[in-house]
Every structure is written in C-alpha cells, then in structure tokens.
Amino acid sequence: MLRDRHGRPVGDHFVHHGTDLETVWDGPVPHLTPNDRFFVRNHTAPAVVDATSWRLLVSGDGVGREATYSLAELQSFTSQTQERALECTGNGRRLFGTQQGHARPGTQWGLGAIGVARWTGVPLGTILRHAGLLDSAVQVMAVGLDEPYVEGGVNHGRVRRPLPIAKALDDVLIAWAMNGEPLPRDHGYPARLIVPGWVGIASIKWLGELRVTTTAETSPWNTKWYRMHGVGWSDANSALDRMPVMSCLDTVGDSQAGAISGQRTVLQGRAWAGEAAISRVEVSTDGGRHWHDATLVGANDPSCWVGWTLPWTPGRVGRHDVVVRATDTTGRRQPQRAPDNDDGYLFSAAVHYQVDVACQAAG
Ligand SMILES: Nc1nc2c(c(=O)[nH]1)N[C@H]1C(S)=C(S)[C@@H](COP(=O)(O)O)O[C@H]1N2
Ligand SMILES: [Mo]
C-alpha cells in the first residue's frame, strides 16, 4: 500500500495538508462522518498512549484534591452519547484568498475541516464534581499528551487551552468512543474533550491533565493563536469560542457541477452554526440578486449540521453564480464578506459556486 511521508495510506479520500487531512466528498454527504473520513488536525504527531497505564490527572487549586482516573474508572460513571460537529477554527481559510482576495497563511482548508460523529463519554462536569470542584473555580486548562509544539525554534509546551468553567459544566464530554468505536489514534485515543459548537482547538485530544484553577491562566493557544489579530481587532473583541453560522453546496443533481438546461435538478448541501441550530437556508442562482428558501432535511440539532435541498430548473445555459447562506436560531446570518484577520480564522461568508449548465445532449 502506498503511504505518504506521515505513514498514512494515499488515495484515501482526503486532501493532505502536511500533518492535516481534509475531508472531501464527491457526492451526497452522510449525516455521520465515518471515522476514516473525518478530518485530522494535528499540531505535531499523534501521541502513542497505552490505554491500560493511561491516567487522567485532575489538578489545580480549583478542586478539593488532586485525583487520577483510569479509562475503566471514567467508564464506570454514567456515560452519554451525543451527535456533535467538530470544526477547525481555520475551516474555509482558503476562501479568504479565493473569494475575498486576501490569502491568509496556515493550512489552506476548503470547507472539509468539519465532521459530525456520535461521541460517547462522561460529562466533564461529572468528573470535576467527583474531584471536589470548588465554587471559586473559574476555568479548566485541558492539556494534551502529544509532544510539545515547537515553532520557529520556540518551544510552546504541550497543546493546551483554557475552558471557562460555565462551558465546562454545560455540555462538554470526556469522550472515548467515536461512532461506536474506540477513538482512532488520530482523533485522540484513548480520551479527548468534545466541546460542542466551539473552536476545534478547545476539543483537546490525548487528554492528559485537567488543571482546574481559581484564577484565569492563558496558553499560546488562546493568546498567540486562535485569536483574531490584525486591523480592527483588540483584546476586547478578539477572543474565540463559538463557531459562526456556515453553509455549503454539496451536489447539483448527481454531480458537483453541471446540470442540463431546461431540466429540473436538485441542489443539495449542509448548514451548521456552532452551538446553535439552523433556522433558514437561502440559495441564489444569480450571484445574490434573488434568494430562494431551501428545505431543511433531517435532524436539525444544536452543535450539529442539517441538510438542505432546493429544486432548480436552470433558465439558460452557461455559467451560474450559485450562492448559499444560512441563518441560525440566534439570528446570525452569513455575511457577504467574512471579517478579515491575519490568521484566516472563522471564514463565515456566504460561499459562491460556479455551476456550468450545459446544452442538453442530443438524443
Ligand atoms: N492535543 C491536541 N489536541 C488537539 C489538537 C492537537 O494538535 N493536539 N488539535 C486541535 C485542533 S486545531 C482541532 S481542529 C481538533 C481536530 O480534531 P480531529 O483531528 O479529531 O478532527 O483537535 C484539537 N485538539
Ligand atoms: Mo483547528
């Protein structure tokens, strides 16, 4: 079997960006993303963890006592299984260049740095309370077991990011299973956080420690990266937590491009919105002059994605500028332009697709 320089099989339906893998679909997109098609974003190499000797350490001045948990101990608490999306903060970064004319450095993701899985685990709040969470605790620093991240000769330490206590106690899971299987190594075996609706970096993989504190601590992953930098951004408005509302077109009829003039076809896609659900998807086939309401298809749960469809009978042959935009249940609607920022985070603009309508083939 052919393998790339990171030891992964090639020809595996992913777009390879160095250590990162982007999901690509060439047809209808299933509601649940299979584990072997789920995007991968690794700062270094996946940690190699022996699950039998692995222990999760809960530490810090925000808990009554330091505690450790084996995988079997975590699994002895009442577990939950939740369908949740996981999306990289840089999802759609390539579009800052292709659609807005300001290419931004970093992994040039299209819209394939998101997936939805059924995650099984124990609520983070259950474990924090079991460890004697104090009322005065303000945050949890989740620390990964992958190798310290070194960039430009600077060692930034282990991948870690603080989570405010309110979110930690709300709907965060310490997950050990993904779509009914143990977490694959690339996705954080044996356990990771799942922080629904928030920037992907919050969902720390290969979880090693939860440092609970009564004062706010920072890490480079919420000061240097995963924060808006550039013109118009300041300390007051640049912190990142919830993901924006977003939508995409997946198929036109049976293919990704091309329909037949005069014949009815169907446009299909998905929409998602961080912690929210979707209230509306609109589609334009004339570059945004006229909009049509699409029909939402299937489950429409918060922190997940929903399908949409719209029948379409092209009125002419040639290139069409198809645009999709969604509105979420909190009233956020995708803008025409995503707010620019140096690192190309949170691309949220309505996406334009070129759809070529060919003449009907002769008999
Ligand atoms: N320990 C650790 N956790 C991590 C990362 C990492 O490199 N190391 N990457 C983060 C980022 S940026 C994202 S988008 C998600 C990706 O999760 P996935 O690879 O399972 O799709 O994991 C997050 N958790
Ligand atoms: Mo990410």
Short description:
The protein is mainly β. The protein folds into 2 domains: 14-213, Sulfite Oxidase, Chain A, domain 2 (Alpha-Beta Complex), CATH 3.90.420.10; 246-358, Immunoglobulin-like (Sandwich), CATH 2.60.40.
Could you explain the architecture of this structure?
This protein is mainly β and 363 residues long. It has two domains: 14-213, Oxidoreductase, molybdopterin-binding domain (Sulfite Oxidase, Chain A, domain 2, Alpha-Beta Complex), CATH 3.90.420.10; 246-358, Immunoglobulin-like (Sandwich). 7% of the residues lie in helices and 34% in strands. The strands form six sheets. Strands 4-3-14-7-10 form a five-stranded mixed sheet. Strands 5, 6, 11, 12 and 13 form a five-stranded antiparallel sheet that branches. The mean pLDDT is 94. The protein binds ligand MTE and molybdenum atom. Molybdenum atom binds next to loops. Residues 38-43, 86, 88, 144, 146, 159, 186-187, 200-201, 203-206 line the site of ligand MTE.
Features:
5-stranded mixed sheet; mainly beta; 23 strands; 5-stranded antiparallel sheet; Immunoglobulin-like; single chain; elongated; Sulfite Oxidase, Chain A, domain 2; 363 residues; 2 domains; binds the ligand Nc1nc2c(c(=O)[nH]1)N[C@H]1C(S)=C(S)[C@@H](COP(=O)(O)O)O[C@H]1N2; binds molybdenum atom
In this entry the ligands are: the ligand Nc1nc2c(c(=O)[nH]1)N[C@H]1C(S)=C(S)[C@@H](COP(=O)(O)O)O[C@H]1N2, molybdenum atom
Helical content band: under 10%
CATH class identity of the largest domain = Alpha Beta
Q: Secondary-structure element sequence?
A: EEEEHEHEHEEEEHEEEEHEEEEEEEEE
Radius of gyration using CA atoms only: 22 Å
Q: How many structurally independent domains? A: 2
- CATH architectural category of the largest domain: Alpha-Beta Complex
Structural class: mainly beta
Work out the strand percent. Answer: 25-35%
Largest beta sheet, briefly? 5 strands, mixed
Task: List unreliable stretches of 5+ residues.
Answer: none
**Biggest sheet, spatial arrangement of strands:** 4-3-14-7-10
* Shape, per Cα inertia axes: elongated
Average pLDDT reading: 94
At CATH level 3, the topology of the largest domain is Sulfite Oxidase, Chain A, domain 2
The count of strands amounts to 23
Number of H- or I-type helical stretches: 5
CATH superfamily of the largest domain: Oxidoreductase, molybdopterin-binding domain
> N-to-C terminal Cα separation, in Å?
43 Å
